[in-house]
């Protein structure tokens, strides 16, 4: 079930009303698992059933290894059990998402369970924290099968994260707020859902129309069009994923669960290193704690530090997609951070505006690799941006608020509605992306004024009435 | 704070529900796609075949379905009512895909006792790979399931079209049901127009192999045959619209003529064995196809020609049979291969 559907709003209403009615925590967890199963399986076709089975089996493997860890058997054997479980998860991920890449397309299952990449990292994080003792055996013992199943399938996070570390989830499920939200929680949840829906449906998908038009007319891209496509994708990806995270956080909050912050105004970053502290924070934290630190981090000299950074970002790129474009994107980000480290304080002495502009430009250009279907297509877009002709082609605004544009044209704008809407969408999107703070932090601090209520109301209603013809979340593919 | 937040949250939910109710109520009352009401035969606002045809299939009383792509748009249902002594509903989808036609036909058979389907079998869509075919029908309109009506009632696009419909009606800019989706009155068909809309391609270095279209054709014909086999008591009249000589100029220059004739032969071979199939080929009317004043581009033909074709259908003058189809197609092949195309452009 996608978040941007009437079915989800109905499902969320029922879940948020019924689950808190459960008399005991056990019943509440069972109800929530059932709801999560419905969410996963609803309307996603026959592969959803197989995907669900893969996630359940993976959860079983992790839980079995965790129980074995508590069994008191010889430590080497218990470690072996954790390693085998980790190997299982990596093998499943490789099989479903990368077999085609490694075999040149000769062998490929042709589908992958929804949310498998997020699920895999979450399971690996759980296993790693058992192994390092960050998840205390006492705390581990308190995690029963039902609670662990909920950790694996929790509907707000199952398709696209945020990647939950054990400490971000289990203490909450065992705490007093779980399924006992008060009106502060409900208001916070509705606030986040309203803004999340608006980000996804009204901004990300509108920008997506412009970006898709550009990629469908690569040979006709002018320089201004290419820059609009590049900037459009930068903003689209941010609003798509952060919008999803806002909705996920809002939905979880209606059930008394707080999700970790995943975005902190990333496009305000003054360096690529800072960008990664603000973008997809749970992924960055996972990679730092489960990969960068175990590789030695920055403690074993400059060369090994650089190697570790490059390795982490190559894996990050590959996690996002099994293609050369994703590897190149990861490598670019790795190289940029190596460069920043090598430059040391010389960069920080530059004016903040210059550092921001440089970082924003780099991130924009790197996203071209992320979006392009091939390195050749990426080169075409970049070439058009720097050497293309002038003017804005008329096809660029096709599908951008098409009904609204048609209505405005009928009312007298005589064909200029497309350009006006394009300008408005880019201005609003840029302002929203660059302003400080984020929805998830604001959901606890906002003042409940009439104006905010009316704004949320209109945004949520407009987004809801725009569901038909809305694209799927980009990050659900990962 | 808790009380203030409660008021805020309840206010948000109430406002949200009020806006949705207002939208649903407006769409329900105006019903621009005729999901709940019958269209007014004397004056409606017609703007989208894929969305409004479901309402026609549901609300009209008919035993004949006239169906096809934009090539069928310039036929009036009334002609078939007279020529076949029947009652007809016209359902066309511009650039329609076979999956879309199947969905619409299924709904028609569900709603009415369909005795006859008259279908404009466009060779271009027979040659099209199924993966490239549009599949854009709003399925929630092509059923009687009230549980998915939310997608109709709660849509800003439908809301905007509701307002558009009211606005057009207020200005008296409506069309009769018989004229729904017709466009032959809005342009003047002529050789100049036909040539203006035609881009003469470069001559291909190599002709396409004769079997180039057959795999896609077979896949598309399998869908067509499933209609015929699924409804043995319904008569299916498939007709091939008269593509102009410009179309054959294009085929000749692209080296696709033999492949297209192989497709036409395959179509005849596959469909003619069925007792409930009538295949009529207007492609072979060389008087019509060489008179470019009949056309708006290289394939779309004027209302005066579509009328003559509709009139000719019951008589069967253009009917292909297992006995005559080779000879008629061979004659057309001979004609288009030897035609002096340069005189068109002289």
What's the layout of helices and strands?
The complex is a heterodimer of chains A (478) and B (346).
Chain A (H helix, E strand, L loop, with lengths): L5 H13 L6 H17 L4 H24 L5 H28 L13 H17 L4 H5 L3 H9 L1 H4 L7 H8 L9 H34 L6 H31 L18 H7 L2 H12 L9 H19 L3 H20 L1 H4 L3 H20 L3 H13 L14 H12 L3 H18 L4 H7 L4 H16 L13
Chain B lengths: L1 H29 L18 H11 L4 E5 L8 H7 L4 E5 L5 H14 L4 E5 L2 H4 L23 H4 L2 H15 L20 H6 L17 H17 L4 E6 L4 H10 L2 H15 L5 E5 L4 H5 L12 H10 L6 E2 L4 H14 L3 H4 L1
Parallel strand pairs in B: 1-2, 1-3, 3-4, 4-5
Antiparallel strand pairs in B: 5-6
Task: Describe this structure in a few short sentences.
The complex is a heterodimer of chains A (478) and B (346). By secondary structure, chain A is mainly alpha-helical.
Helix-strand sequence of chain B: HHEHEHEHHHHHEHHEHHEHH
User: What's the alpha carbon Rg of chain A, rounded to whole Å?
Assistant: 23 Å
Helix content of chain A: over 70%
As a percent range, the share of strand residues of chain B is 5-15%
Mean pLDDT value of chain A? 92
Main sheet record of chain A: none
Distance between the termini of chain B: 84 Å
Structural class of chain B: alpha/beta
> Percent range for helical residues of chain B?
40-55%
DSSP strand tally of chain A: 0
- Tally of individual helices of chain A: 22
Overall mean pLDDT of chain B: 94
The CATH superfamily of chain B is SGNH hydrolase
Derived structural class of chain A: mainly alpha
Low-confidence stretches of chain B at least 5 residues in length (pLDDT < 50)?
A: none
Main pleated sheet of chain B: 6 strands, mixed
| SSE arrangement of chain A, N to C | HHHHHHHHHHHHHHHHHHHHHH
Shape of chain B: elongated
Characterization of this structure:
The complex is a heterodimer of chains A (478) and B (346). The longest helix of chain A has 34 residues, at 183-216. Chain A has helices at residues 6-18, 25-41, 46-69, 75-102, 116-132, 137-141, 145-153, 155-158, 166-173, 183-216, 223-253, 272-278, 281-292, 302-320, 324-343, 345-348, 352-371, 375-387, 402-413, 417-434, 439-445, 450-465. Chain A is mainly alpha-helical. Chain A has 3 domains: 6-175, no CATH class; 186-259 and 353-477, no CATH class; 272-349. Chain A is globular and about 75 Å long. With 346 residues, chain B is an alpha/beta fold. Chain B has one domain: 3-Layer(aba) Sandwich (Rossmann fold). Helix content of chain B is 48%, strand content 8%. Chain B contains 15 helices and 6 strands. Chain B has helices spanning 2-30, 49-59, 77-83, 98-111, 123-126, 150-153, 156-170, 191-196, 214-230, 245-254, 257-271, 286-290, 303-312, 325-338, 342-345; strands at 64-68, 88-92, 116-120, 235-240, 277-281, 319-320. Chain B has a 6-stranded mixed beta sheet with strand order 2-1-3-4-5-6, sandwiched between helices. In chain B, helix 2 (49-59) packs parallel to helix 4, helix 4 packs parallel to helix 9 and helix 11 runs antiparallel to helix 14 (325-338). Chains A and B meet through helix 10, helix 19 and helix 22 of A and helix 1 and helix 7 of B.
